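FAQ: What does the model actually see?

It sees only this:
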Amino acid sequence: MRLIRTEDSYAQRKAMKLNLPPVRKARIELLPLMDIIFLLLVVFIYSMLSMSVHHGMPVKLPVSSLAKPDKTFVLSVTVKENNQIFVDKKQVPIEDLASILKESAQDQKNPGVLLFAHKDISYQHLFLVLDQIKMAGLSQISLQATFQNDIKTAGTK
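And it is asked to produce this:
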């Protein structure tokens, strides 16, 4: 029977031991995650701002320092500078405007009209269009304007 000296076995065990790096806990890096969250937030905000209520034709609107779009209105009436009238991008004569608006609004609960009028049309023609809208039974009319912070410089552009 052979006796093993404890010093030798300790030296052998120490020589066989591998020097492995210490085990580190897994970490979730938060900075890249926060960057992605903010990027998604910015994309969401810009996509929501790009959604527009405007169903009318492109016209040069008058400016106002208090102009805010009202998203509760259903119908869009556009009066271009040559006095052409459009209802949701469909050209209509002024004589048929009341009947077309009445027909379009009959399915809606409490309908309203967004009125986009070119800034250079006559005041009289604007009132002819307003009369037709009121004859259709629509009392919620929102005159649209372009927002401008400084109203004093609006006429210089």
